[in-house]
Amino acid sequence: MNRLPASIERIQATIDYIDEHLDDALDIQQLAVRTEMSFWHFLRVFRATVGETVKDYIRRRRLTRAAFELLETQQNIIDVALGAGFETHEAFTRAFRSQFGTSPREFRAAGRPPQLPRGIPHITTEYLAHLHSGLSTEPEIVESPARRLVGIKSEFSVAPEDFDLIALGQAAWQQFEPEIARLPVRASRLAGLCSDIVGASETAIQGYVMSCVEVSDFSGIPDGLVSLVRPAVKEARFRHRGAGQTWEFTLQYVFGAWLPDSHFTVVDQPAFFSFAPDSSPFSEGPEVDYWLALK
User: Fold this and answer.
1) Is-contact 80 291, C-beta < 8 A?
2) What gap in Å lies between CA 227 and CA 190, rounded to an integer?
3) Which residues partner with 200 through β-bridges?
4) pLDDT at residue 227 in the model
5) Cβ-Cβ contacts under 8 Å for 64 (sequence gap 6 or more)
6) Which residues, 6 or more positions from 162, have their beta carbon under 8 angstroms from its beta carbon?
7) How would you classify the pairing of strands 140-144 and 186-200?
8) Cα separation of 61 and 24, whole Å?
9) What is the pTM (predicted TM-score) of this model?
10) Tens-digit pLDDT profile for residues 216-260
11) How buried is residue 258: exposed, middle or buried, by Cβ count under 10 Å (0-12/13-18/19+)?
């Protein structure tokens, strides 16, 4: 088996640490510190690699352990709930039913083990290949000139588990698309989405998404639109074609598999996607280029 990328080994170490400390108050910020990644990069790589958020993973592991305790011990349900980190019987029952489709009491009475692995997952190169099947794209590395962008900028603040770039981008695009015809100095026929995270914590991710077009200069910008310059930079150009709205999976591939195994690091610049208006990421046949700033 090939050696795993260093950042993926750190995620595996995080998974091991979580399982060894399920009885402790796990601070996601501190988990990120242990990986030596930025908080936002840790959240993204973890989700891309494991397939769910850190918060959801911890909850699932605690609930899985609680399910086995219900079957294998005589503990009261409230004691099992408290051991799983829930403050009330009601909160535990809601979460348990959401995961297993039945209440803790009914589950114990049925006596059937949960349909989840008892042990922790172990990430391998084969596992990554399976997780990202069909997304084994290699980017084109290019030196991109500065881009002058004009569009509509929407700010957001959402919980990490609710961060959905598709939904955020689609709302911004629907607002901006009718405005494109008002721009007289477009540099190309392509449109774009520009997005950046400006703050991240356990409870919220703050940032913006901007639907835009590239222009040759900023003269005559219509009222209600804003401008932004994306500096000249080396970029990896990933091309995503088709498959409905699964372009989010391409992002998971980029950050969960390609980037950790490359010799590049990410430059702190907004993410940028370009596309023809009739094949946007939200159409039935999207053709999207994702431009990732690198050094």
Assistant:
1) no
2) 16
3) 205
4) 93
5) 114, 116, 117, 118
6) none
7) unpaired
8) 13
9) 0.65
10) 989 888 888 999 999 999 999 988 876 544 665 676 678 766 787
11) buried
Contact status, residue 228 vs residue 194, Cβ threshold 8 Å: yes
Residue whose tokens read 């919220």: 204
Q: CA angle, 176 as apex, 170 and 178 as ends, to 5°?
A: 115
**Measured torsion, CA atoms of residues 127, 132, 136, 138, in degrees rounded to the nearest 10:** -100
Query: At a CB cut-off of 8 Å and minimum separation 6, what does 46 contact?
Result: 11, 14, 53, 54, 57
What order of strands is seen across the sheet that includes strand 147-158?
Answer: 140-144, 233-241, 287-293, 271-275, 186-200, 205-215, 147-158, 226-230
**And the tokens for 209?**
């998404």
Q: How far apart are CA 291 and CA 188, in angstroms?
A: 16
C-alpha span between 220 and 151 (Å, rounded): 13
Please give the residue that has the higher pLDDT: either 287 or 105. Answer: 105
Report residue 234 as tokens.
């080396």
Torsion angle (degrees, nearest 10) of CA 142, 236, 31, 84: 170
